[in-house]
Amino acid sequence: xIHHMKVKTILVSQPEPKIENSPYFDLSExxxxxxxxxxxxxxxxxxxxxxxxxxxxxxxxxxxxxxSRNAVDHFFRVAEEMRFKVPDSMKYFCQSExxxxxxxxxxxYRKRKIYVGKRNFADLSPLIKKYKDEKFLLPTTDKLxxxxxxxxxxxxxxxKEAVFYKTVISDLSDLENVTYDILVFFSPSGIESLFHNFxxxxxxxxxxxxxGNTTIKAxxxxxxxxxxxxxxxxxxxxxxALQKYIDKANKGK
Length: 253
Description:
This protein has about 250 residues and is α/β, with parallel strands linked by helices. It folds into two domains: about 10-40 and about 170-250, Rossmann fold; about 45-170, Rossmann fold, CATH 3.40.50.10090. The protein has helices at about 25-30, 50-55, 70-80, 95-100, 125-130, 145-155, 190-195, 215-220, 240-250; strands spanning about 10, 35, 40-45, 65, 90-95, 115, 135-140, 160-170, 180-185, 205-210, 230.
């Protein structure tokens, strides 16, 4: 039987939720635990002069492939820095509803040509194929998933990838002497950041909660223990998994 220590503090390696009714706030109130939020990684824009060095001239493209909200923000930031007026005829291929919805921050929706996938990048393929004569630009991150170029290359289209933003490790040195009962991670880069900031990190009694298989793998590769994992059929969200664990751990008070 694993000895469950009582949980009083949780550190979530993400920015604080902007919404008032975040399940984390409910969890905190209900379980009387203190939850802190701190991004272990952050996104930084690549300056437009570096993008020019990648041989990108925005005038050459008729369609933009957008895989995330960051891609949307940084495409329009770079367009502005380059004083490029995005033409109304530009086509936008968005990986998900959320990305398409976010585009409204920059473009008048009903006047634009916006094509939306379901969820995975592969779902965009039939849409892109339909417009295979366009010249596509993929403004992306330095950590692009390998399946994205594979899929695009398989479509025999004219496309170019350019790094518009980078994932950067945040400085966490002020957390050096702070301990939390549970650390929550959502990506392998979060784990990378932990060890970059604290090369001597020892898990000891700290519980590690992780979301997603690639994150679990990253934790195990570092020889750490996964104490709480999501999603599972009974706990599809991280907050549910934490709730279930804390219920058990704090029962014996």
